[in-house]
UniProtKB/TrEMBL annotation:
Keywords: Apoplast, Hydrolase, Protease, Secreted, Serine protease, Signal. This is SUBTILISIN-LIKE PROTEASE SBT5.1. It comes from Salix koriyanagi. Residues 664-761 form the Subtilisin-like protease fibronectin type-III domain. Belongs to the peptidase S8 family. Residues 1-25 form the signal peptide. One of its GO terms (molecular function) is serine-type endopeptidase activity.
């Protein structure tokens, strides 16, 4: 093994400092603005055109242009004053001008402790001992993320077919990255200067010093790597969703966040490069109600217009409702579920009483309960708030009482667990037990510190013990793996929930996929390691809708490789209508606390990787559907004509354009509201036969909640040839005068071979 060590000047910055948003909300500041000018013309929009528009308002400065968007999307990002931004927005060719937003990665792992080290160590040993499951297909997955660690075994191209001829992209040469880092697996790599970046060599490279991008890329399209594990945990064969697909890397995230202006540049490049699928495991904390100011929604619109399927994470703001992000109808929005593998780190107290705990830690403080135990509340500082102390908040506990003890901390205020950990650690605590009902399923990672999570029900027993004895003792056992855990899947507590804040009349999220405790490839950059003697793991466990998203991107790529001509909406429909709502106990999928989950948690359900490639029928959402959506959403024809260059001649917004009509766009799920006073609403859907020729008849099964009558007509659909489209109507009639809450059901078309299920949600005002 040969290491080449490249030195780098040490700097150490806490991530918090990066969360400063450039040109933050309000838009009254000088800073980087995105000028969105709708679709590019067929031959690409010209940089000259953008420069001219810019110079028409900028008299004094040069170098104001940050990015120019020329393919698929037209527009640019530039440094402007608020007055200049306003002036540009008056130009009729401009759809919107808005401050460059900063997005975050959708992982639950805390980046607050991300530290930079001194080296980038690149292990150059050839990754030749991997087994390939396929010679490769021609599908290209573009990943917008933190870059890639190309030396990972997951990205070996051994025995892979040549790069698809449709590829029109590039592998850039940069610091720590050159053309030999691309191969027949990683076929392209680009990076983007975030406007606020310093001259920073670790940033200005497609190389991933974070790990997130490498994890995501290998989850989507990593090849089979036997013998993968995270420091011995979760060992097995690591494999991406589509091991034969190619990866195109677009590094849009740096420690400064993921600039919207960079994301839009990556979309524009990806459209030109010829990718088939785009995977984005990032998003904005607050939701966008104005789609014209959301670079992900804008970029995705044009990508989809160009035949690219765009898959995005739903966000980690759950379990509160109305938290789903990346929820534009042309995006495939992915929620996260748990898998049947859990990480157990039990608490032993008194004379060998055992309580179930969940966490990943690599500590070992012995099997015997010999360490003094204290409830954080009992260590409250005189002047501290009691609930702060219970929750082990900084500056709330008396160090003298904590030192040398295992500390029980409540976790009812949703703090950052890594702060909790470091607070106990800094006061000399030797371990911590968190009381937390919601987060337990997602095993937080505490590295070498003995820390675990227990349920409030189990905590009662430990509190009773504390009350009954003078010198309570306990220990925390090292982590072991539990497989075939039941129930699984369940909704991951962090997964963002519907309804959509764009409109209740579109059901979001769309789909759910594994996103909790997932093992995948990692960066070998060791800047974060506190203990440099410990080997950097080649694979790592990560949680978040970030991880769920590339599972779906991989599945979309598999479908696309089987049916290259399918539209993004056909791919989406295949994934949604074949999803499952059942767990491994043959019961309904449940949410984090055991309640039965709904479509606001998982959309159509958990992905079914084997059924999705044979959906039988698909709901195709057409270009006109999306244009009508924009009408219903409140855009006029002139704005729509700038946004899309594919508006057919004679297109006009329907006379009556109101949000209620969004329910009628041909989506693979249904959301219908305003069902009051026993008035009916009628919705139409159209199915396309994709099962090949032949004569086949589907009949309908309706699953309706009480309080609602759902009638479908016709009840049978007879298809006689491939590609045939047939429509049906659904009439929703409430049987009570006002529906109290949103209700869920489904409409399933079945022949002998296929079940084509569309979920619905219905409600009052
Ligand atoms: C690759 O696959 C072959 C046949 O399945 C197996 O014998 C061999 O051990 C595998 N190689 C590795 C590195 O796992
Ligand atoms: C790329 O970088 C590697 C390692 O730094 C070096 O060995 C190789 O010669 C470079 N290749 C090219 C084409 O520059
Ligand atoms: C391929 O890339 C070139 C520039 O690199 C661009 O001009 C051209 O339009 C692209 N081709 C397609 C089909 O997008
Ligand atoms: C322990 O004692 C405290 C008061 O001293 C009481 O509030 C609490 O309910 C007791 N807990 C249990 C589990 O008995
Ligand atoms: C269309 O909407 C835009 C933005 O709201 C507005 O500036 C424009 O005047 C409208 N055009 C027409 C023809 O109503
Ligand atoms: C609900 O329906 C009523 C009557 O059909 C209509 O006047 C109202 O605008 C609708 N509300 C919404 C939010 O669309
Ligand atoms: C299709 O099947 C139906 C009923 O089984 C039959 O009535 C019809 O004639 C068939 N059509 C064709 C084109 O085979």
């Amino acid at each position: 093994m040969r290491y080449s060590t490249l030195c780098y000047v040490l700097f150490l910055i806490l991530f918090d400092a990066f969360l400063v948003e450039s040109g933050a909300a309000g838009g009254e500041k000088d800073g980087v603005y995105i000028v969105y000018m709708g679709a590019a013309t067929e031959h690409g929009s010209s940089k000259n055109e953008h420069a001219q528009l810019l110079s028409s308002v900028l008299k004094r400065r040069k170098n104001a242009l940050v990015h120019s968007y020329e393919h698929g999307i037209s527009g640019f990002a530039a440094r402007l004053s608020a007055a200049e931004a306003k002036s540009i927005s008056k130009n009729p060719a401009v759809v919107s001008v808005f401050p460059d937003p900063v997005y975050q990665l959708h992982t639950t792992r805390s980046w607050d402790f991300l530290k930079y080290g001194t080296d980038v160590k690149i292990d150059l040993s050839p990754n030749s001992d991997s087994n390939l499951s396929s010679r490769g297909n021609d599908v290209i997955i573009g990943i917008l993320d933190t870059g890639i660690w190309p030396e990972s075994k997951s990205f070996s191209d051994k025995d892979m077919d040549p790069i698809p001829s449709s590829w029109n992209g590039t592998c850039v040469k940069a610091q720590y990255f050159n053309s030999s880092n691309c191969n027949r697996k990683i076929i392209g790599a680009r990076y983007y200067y975030a406007p606020d970046d310093d001259d920073d060599r670790l940033v200005d490279t497609p190389r991933d010093i974070n790990g997130h991008g490498t994890h995501v890329a290998s989850t989507a399209a990593g090849i089979m790597v036997p013998g993968a594990s995270y420091h011995g945990l979760a060992s097995g064969t690591a494999k991406g969703g589509s091991p034969g697909s190619r990866i195109a890397v677009y590094k849009v995230c740096t420690p400064y966040g993921c600039a919207g202006s960079s994301i839009l540049a990556a979309f524009s490049d990806a459209i030109k490069d010829g990718v088939d699928i785009l995977s984005l495991s990032l998003g904005y904390r607050s939701r966008f109600s104005d789609l014209k100011e959301d670079p992900i929604a804008i970029g995705a619109f044009h990508a989809v217009e160009n035949g690219i399927t765009v898959v995005c994470s739903a966000g980690n703001e759950g379990p509160s409702e109305k938290t789903v992000s990346n929820d534009a109808p042309w995006i495939l929005t992915v929620a996260a579920t748990t898998i049947d593998r859990r990480f157990k780190s039990n608490v032993v107290f008194d004379k060998n009483k055992v309580i179930k705990g969940e966490a990943i830690n690599f500590a070992n403080i012995g099997k015997s309960p010999v360490h003094p135990l204290i409830y954080a509340k009992s260590a409250k500082k005189a002047d501290a708030d009691e609930s702060d102390a219970r929750n082990c908040y900084p500056d709330s506990m008396d160090g003298k009482k904590i030192k040398g003890k295992i500390v029980i901390c409540d976790n009812d205020k949703d703090p950052n667990l890594y702060y909790t950990m470091s607070e106990v650690q800094n006061l000399g605590g030797i371990g911590a037990v968190l009381v937390d009902d919601t987060k337990r399923g997602d095993a937080s990672e505490f590295d070498d510190f003995p820390m675990t999570s227990i349920s409030s029900r189990d905590a009662v027993e430990i509190f009773a013990y504390l009350n009954s004895t003078k010198n309570p003792v306990a220990t925390i056992l090292p982590t072991t793996v539990v497989s075939q855990y039941k129930p699984a899947p369940t909704i991951a507590y962090f997964s963002s929930r519907g309804p959509s804040s764009i409109s209740r009349n579109i059901l979001k999220p769309d789909i759910a996929a594994p996103g909790s405790n997932i093992l995948a490839a990692w960066t070998a950059y060791n800047g974060e390691a506190t203990d440099k003697s410990k080997e950097i793991p080649k694979f790592k466990i990560m949680s978040g809708t970030s991880v769920a998203c590339p599972h779906v991107s991989g599945l979309a790529a598999e479908i696309k490789s089987l049916y290259p001509s399918w539209s993004p909406s056909a791919v989406k429909s295949a994934i949604m209508t074949t999803a499952s709502q059942i767990n491994n106990m043959k019961g309904p999928l449940t949410a984090e606390l055991g309640a039965i989950a709904t479509a606001y948690d998982y959309g159509a359900g958990e992905i079914s990787t084997n059924r999705a490639s044979q959906p039988g029928l698909v709901y195709e959402t057409t270009a006109i559907d999306y244009l009508n959506f924009l009408c219903y959403h409140g855009y006029n024809k002139s704005t729509i004509k700038v946004i899309s260059k594919k508006v057919p001649a004679g297109f006009a917004c329907p006379k009556e354009s109101k949000a209620d009509l969004i329910s009628n766009i041909n989506y693979p799920s249904i959301a219908v509201f305003n069902l009051t006073g026993k008035h009916s609403r009628s919705i139409t859907r159209t199915l396309t036969n994709v099962a090949g020729g032949g004569n086949t008849t589907y009949s309908v099964t309706i699953e309706a909640p009480t309080g609602l009558t759902v009638i479908v007509s016709p009840t049978r659909l007879q298809f006689t040839k491939n590609g045939q489209r047939l429509s049906y109507h659904i009439i929703f009639t409430p049987t009570v005068s006002s529906l109290q809450k949103d209700m869920f059901g489904s409409i399933t078309w079945t022949n002998k071979k296929f079940n084509v299920r569309a979920p619905f949600v219905a409600g009052g005002r």
